[in-house]
Amino acid sequence: MHSTALKLKSVVSSRAAVDLHLASPGDAVLILRGEPRWLLIQCPCGCGEEIPINLDSRAGKAWRIYGISNWQLTLFPSVWRDTGCRSHFIVWRDKVMWCGGWRSQGSVAPTVPDFATLVQEVEASWPHEGWTSFVTIADALGQIPYDVQEACHHLTREGFLIEGIGDLRGHFRRR
């Protein structure tokens, strides 16, 4: 798969101001009323559909958003449309990473700033026993989950961690 860009076009306070800004695949508008409420994305696949992403947990299932202050957005977890084009993708540091084996199909993950320091923080904070999700560690460190997942994969290649399989995929333990 390939990666494309998510382009945050505007931050607005109401839904009425969104349509002017969603013209091309990957365009996005953030609705902010005191705190992030919605991210509306023109589907990056080019189908022409608008994807509403709830960011307010008081309104039901909600995604987490990172990077608003520097306009380099990350959404967690992935976006998976169960209707229409059925696109499934990750938004990570403004890159749209298509799911379905993107790691093995030539797509390059975004550069994680100060990756070496992050790896050290992840290693130092890893519990001594049991399986732990990369999301749990990301939350404890105040980091983007995908960044921590990359650090976990690095620590796995270095022999410090082991990644689970099956239901434990995305969970790691010390070697």
Describe it.
With 175 residues, the chain is α+β, with helices and mostly antiparallel strands. Helix content is 18%, strand content 31%. The protein has helices spanning 115-125, 134-141, 145-157, and strands at residues 3-5, 7-12, 27-33, 35-42, 50-54, 64-66, 74-76, 79-80, 88-92, 95-98, 132-133, 161-163, 171-174. The strands form four sheets. The protein has a four-stranded antiparallel beta sheet with strand order 1-10-9-8, with no helix packed on it. A four-stranded mixed beta sheet has the order 2-3-4-5, with no helix packed on it. The chain has a three-stranded antiparallel beta sheet with strand order 11-13-12. Strand 12 and strand 13 form a beta hairpin. Helix 2 (134-141) packs across helix 3 (145-157). The longest helix has 13 residues, at 145-157. The chain is elongated, with a radius of gyration of 17 Å. The mean pLDDT is 90.
Task: Looking at this protein, list some descriptive labels.
four-stranded mixed sheet; alpha+beta; elongated; 3 helices; single chain; 13 strands
Helix content class:
10-25%
> Which range does the strand content fall in?
25-35%
Overall structural class, as computed from helix and strand content, comes to: alpha+beta
Assign an overall shape: elongated
The biggest beta sheet reads: 4 strands, antiparallel
Can you give me a brief rundown of this structure?
The protein is α+β, with helices and mostly antiparallel strands.
